[in-house]
Amino acid sequence: RRAELRRLAGLPTVSKDGHRVELAANIGSVDDLQKVLENGAEGIGLFRTEFLYMGRSSLPTEEEQYQIYKHVLEKMENKPVVIRTLDIGGDKELPYMKLPVESNPFLGLRAVRLCLSRQDLFRTQLRALLRASRFGQLKIMFPMIAVVEEWMEAKRLLEEEKQRLLQEGVEVSGRIEVGMMIEVPAAALASEMFAKEADFFSIGTNDLIQYTMAADRMNETVSYLYQPCHPTILRLIRMVIQAANKEGKWVGMCGEMAGDARAIPILLGMGLYEFSMSAGFILPAREFIMQTSRTEWAAYIDSLLAMRSQTEIEQFVQAKKGSAS
Ligand code: PEP
Ligand code: MG
């Protein structure tokens, strides 16, 4: 069975009716790259850079970060690599940074909010990314954007560091895409506006579900509310995909939902382009997509969104999956 799947490793992901999508991998460090390559990822859809900052006693320097980003880009041989800027705060702490104690860390100073308030730290990371950009197809992504001012400020700092490097005679790629995560409901609802600004979106369902349902993603006692295929969540996702596609921008998903076999047919039907997941899920997902028809699933979307609950949606999808191919 594994050997059978392995044969799909070198193939592009195309549905039975000829629709092309991209299956990418989520990584947290360079140690994950071996599995990514073995499993035939078409790119990196999410590099969680916070792990470079954790498990040590001081901030990583620009040079240290540069070496790591360069290594990842080189290993991926010009395939797309989405590197997310630091997403610390929330449940992830840095003991050496003395962040303020907050009563609701998930609603507090995390991710891009923290980076914009600690610009020294943010600029260091941006410079390392820009310097590494010439070694592959780098895409830079900002996490937790909620309002356009955050986006504009993050872009401004990136542009400033880019100009500074160019003046210093450092080579910077001219084709870096800059995108944002859609993981705060406010950003999902404003996706038409953001789609005019960003080069791409990646939907972070882990947080999007948590914030939409007001249910802590780590809290077992409210885990019944954590429903990726709830009609409300699917509506938000469709809104984001449509907004991006209208502006000719590509949309991916890097939350756990992207690798969830129950959700993949729905996301495919909605027109999601890039699915980024743990490397181990890639080949089974490719196998499924190659044997299914995207137009068939697209035709079910309106009925799915009219349903009342995740249970009804999952039963419908299960039944259709059973009767297909
Ligand atoms: C997400 O929120 O879906 C996501 C991919 O980011 P993280 O899990 O790192 O918060
Ligand atoms: Mg997140």
**Count of DSSP helices?**
15
Q: What is the overall pLDDT average?
A: 96
Largest sheet: 8 strands, parallel, barrel
Strand order of the largest sheet: 2-3-4-5-6-7-8-9
Characterize the overall form.
Answer: globular
Low-pLDDT regions: none
Structural class: alpha/beta
Q: In percent, how helical is the residue content?
A: 40-55%
Bound molecules: phosphoenolpyruvate, magnesium ion
Q: How far do the termini sit from each other?
A: 19 Å
Number of strands: 9
Rounded Rg: 20 Å
What letter string, H or E per element, gives the SSE order?
HEEHEHHEHHEHEHHEHHEHEHHH
> Beta-strand level of the residues, as a percent range?
5-15%
Cofactor: Mg(2+)
Keywords: Coiled coil, Cytoplasm, Kinase, Magnesium, Metal-binding, Phosphotransferase system, Sugar transport, Transferase, Transport
Subcellular location: Cytoplasm
EC number: 2.7.3.9
Describe this structure in words.
- The protein is 46% helix and 14% strand.
- The chain is α/β, with parallel strands linked by helices.
- It has an eight-stranded parallel beta barrel with strand order 2-3-4-5-6-7-8-9, surrounded by four helices.
- The longest helix is centred in the middle third of the chain and has 20 residues.
- The structure holds phosphoenolpyruvate and magnesium ion (MG).
- Magnesium ion binds next to α10.
- Its main location: cytoplasm.
Task: Give a quick rundown of the structure.
Its main location: cytoplasm. The protein has helices spanning 2-6, 33-38, 50-53, 62-75, 112-117, 119-132, 148-167, 185-189, 191-197, 205-213, 231-246, 264-270, 282-290, 294-305, 310-323, and strands spanning 13-14, 20-27, 44-48, 80-84, 137-142, 177-182, 200-203, 250-253, 274-277. With 325 residues, it is an alpha/beta fold.
